[in-house]
Amino acid sequence: MTVAIANITVISHTYFYLLGIPGLEDQHIWISIPFFTSYTIALLGNILLIFIVVTDHSLHEPMYIFLCMLAILDIGLSTITIPKALAIFWLNSGGISLDGCITQLFFIHSTFIAESGILLAMAFDRYIAICYPLRYTMILNTSVIMKLLIVVYIRGVVTIFPIIFLLKRLTFCKNNLLPHTYCEHIGLAKYACANIRVNIWYGLFVLLMTVVLDIILIVASYFMILHAIFRIPSQDARHKALHTCGSHICVILLFYIPGIFTVVVQRFGKQIPPYIHILIANVCLLVPPVMNPIIYGIKTKQIKNRIYLLLFQRQG
Hints:
Layout (H helix, E strand, L loop, with lengths): L1 E4 L2 E4 L3 E4 L9 H28 L6 H30 L3 E3 H34 L4 H4 L2 H27 L8 E2 L6 H5 L7 H33 L5 H34 L5 H26 L1 H13 L3
Helix pairs in contact: 1-2, 1-9, 2-3, 2-9, 3-5, 3-7, 3-8, 5-7, 8-9, 9-10
């Protein structure tokens, strides 16, 4: 596409090329092995988790419904990014249209925000279960759970939707080679000729009003949970309450810490090679979908027992 500005013809790219991991092109085949392995584990683990929750009526409780939704989002986040990365590594097929790139980043960012919202909902679930156990089923009934899930999903879509128009208004004349395995908002916007200050500020606004706010509320909820737990007179009851929170805390740390580390590295790690930035960004998307079903499978007795029966009882 060409745009005429003051008698100057400016070429606006409508097709881009994702380069994978610049500086490690000769290692792409080897890098693809952990990507493919992680994607396979993420798919199988999360599908198994969803199957167990759906088919076992004893698991039709708020915590497991949220966990099931988290697994669905994990599958979505992996599928949005990993197959394209593997196509780059195996086939050198990094071509993507501008609309395709915007579509991919829309689903990546909105799914990430939705996952953050689910983790907040799970923290709220643990808060109600521990601080108000007698009113738990009354507060978190089916209607409330469905409304929470709808709000979480809509929040992700509504906050990211304006980014489509913020990107579509730009003229991309600098370059059409994207040094990454997937498209992301500022990573694409920085190749525009126009001023992208609005994009930067809106991206920061979305981050603060979603992920950062979620982290603050999760931390606040766990302060109240811990305060309630340590007031329980029975040591066994305290231990059981802490154990039920353990898997959720592990998942929270795995989800947020790589993301926080990425932001810190991008902001202050100017001397760090670009391929390190790209690898860390991919770790953020790879680790949670792989580890979430493993953590809940190991630390949640009901799910662990169901997996054991499913895998080993049939063999017997």
